[in-house]
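Appendix C: a fully annotated inverse folding record. The material below is reproduced so that readers can follow the format used throughout the book. The structure is listed first as tokens, followed by the designed sequence.
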């Protein structure tokens, strides 16, 4: 069992945000805005998946996961609420969320499938977000010069993603999920995630008026494929998921733990999954 802690985020999300809040960089702002647009619908799916997974376990097997699932839901519900507030600023600035409807259509396609499939999708997506989080915690250059309150928001979210990275995976295993189906779904999820992220980022850049500027794509190259790029730096972790002996706990969480400990004043605990 993984100990999870539900926290409040004490960051001002009422004051309007600068249009290019991420260090004045159009690409980095558009990329992070795109990610935020996916979170409210995505986090709700993860909540529903672990609820269904817990309910599908035999009664005598639920005790192992009950507290962890409650805390997982608490963390994800907080992420959903915070990013909903963030996204309201983007909507006020005229940005259109094209990603969320695609997420909802895919969720509808999964409606008739069993909880193991929901958990496999959740575990795969959680691995991708954990890789992003792990890399950003260790190499925060993509947030250089960003609005300070939003730096705190993103690092808090990243730290908690690292903390609860094992929950859906362990439930999938507990329900008898196998590697063949896990890896098949992982490939599909990876393709959808990267394509949707690219489409929404491009849409954001178009609305911002910076899509065709050379400086935009120079930043894109540095951010994604530079020496510490978000994508180039995550390839090894992506491959790790394909191993039969993989477990999410193999990831590096030292930076996440250190951040949560050092920033307890702005992300104070409100509940724990165990004493």
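Designed amino acids, in order:
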């Amino acid at each position: 069992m993984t100990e999870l802690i539900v926290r409040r985020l004490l960051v001002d999300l009422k004051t309007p945000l600068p249009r290019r809040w991420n260090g004045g960089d159009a690409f980095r702002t558009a990329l992070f805005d795109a990610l935020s647009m996916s979170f409210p619908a995505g986090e709700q799916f993860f909540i529903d998946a672990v609820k269904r997974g817990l309910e599908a376990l035999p009664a005598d097997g639920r005790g192992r996961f009950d507290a962890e699932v409650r805390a997982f839901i608490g963390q994800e519900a907080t992420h959903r609420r915070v990013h909903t507030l963030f996204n309201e600023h983007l909507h006020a600035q005229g940005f259109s969320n094209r990603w969320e409807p695609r997420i909802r259509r895919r969720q509808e396609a999964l409606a008739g499938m069993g909880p193991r499939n929901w958990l496999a999708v959740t575990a795969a997506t959680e691995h991708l977000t954990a890789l992003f989080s792990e890399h950003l915690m260790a190499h925060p250059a993509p947030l250089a010069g960003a609005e300070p309150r939003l730096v705190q928001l993103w690092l808090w979210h990243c730290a908690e993603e690292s903390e609860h990275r094992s929950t859906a995976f362990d439930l999938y295993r507990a329900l008898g999920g196998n590697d063949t189906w896990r890896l098949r779904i992982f490939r599909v999820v990876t393709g959808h995630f990267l394509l949707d992220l690219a489409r929404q980022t491009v849409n954001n850049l178009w609305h911002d008026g910076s899509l065709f500027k050379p400086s935009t794509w120079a930043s894109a190259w540095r951010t994604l494929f530079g020496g510490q790029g978000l994508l180039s730096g995550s390839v090894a972790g992506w491959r790790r998921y394909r191993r039969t002996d993989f477990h999410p706990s193999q990831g590096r969480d030292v930076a996440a733990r250190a951040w949560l400990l050092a920033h307890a004043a702005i992300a104070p605990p409100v509940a724990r999954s165990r004493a």
